[in-house]
Design a protein that fits this description.
Length: 156
């Protein structure tokens, strides 16, 4: 059965456009450290699902990445898919599904403010800690997506 494209996470966004979208919603791009913490939890687990890589839990380790014309296949899944692919804080799909733009911790100079976290549907890094930092703030492709962060509510 076909996926409903309106249920799929936003993709093919550059760091610059992702940042603008988050800000337009009163949020911001996550920084690398808070993204990693949300993924691995207090135990600093390598995968949001624990200490063992289990390709059956999350949307990664796809092998048939391009079609006969050389175009990348879209294997995104809805944000609420893969309930077993959940971090200790209950955040879903932090690995696989899409590479998510973050701020590199302590960065301020362009073009090295952007880091992609989480990995996408290929057989790749798909762990909490690694990041791709070799793209500038304008790079985008089908697998680059967005996860916005928001300040925690004040106690009381």
């Amino acid at each position: 059965h076909a996926k409903d494209p309106t249920d799929l996470p936003v993709a093919d966004y550059s760091w610059t456009l992702a940042r603008q979208l988050c800000e337009s919603e009163g949020k911001r791009l996550c920084n690398e450290g808070e993204w990693t913490f949300a993924c691995e939890g207090e135990e600093m687990r390598p995968y949001p699902t624990g200490y063992v890589r289990d390709a059956g839990l999350c949307n990664y380790d796809r092998e048939d990445l391009v079609d006969a014309k050389g175009k990348m296949r879209d294997y995104r899944e809805p944000a609420n898919a893969n309930p077993q692919c959940e971090s200790p804080f209950g955040v879903r799909n932090m690995v696989g599904n899409l590479d998510e733009w973050t701020w590199i911790d302590g960065s301020s100079n362009t073009p090295w403010r952007a880091a992609l976290k989480g990995g996408w549907w290929l057989a790749g890094r798909n762990r909490c800690r690694p990041a791709t930092t070799g793209h500038d703030e304008f790079y985008h492709d089908l697998q680059t997506g967005i996860r916005c962060c928001k300040a925690a509510p004040s106690p009381g």
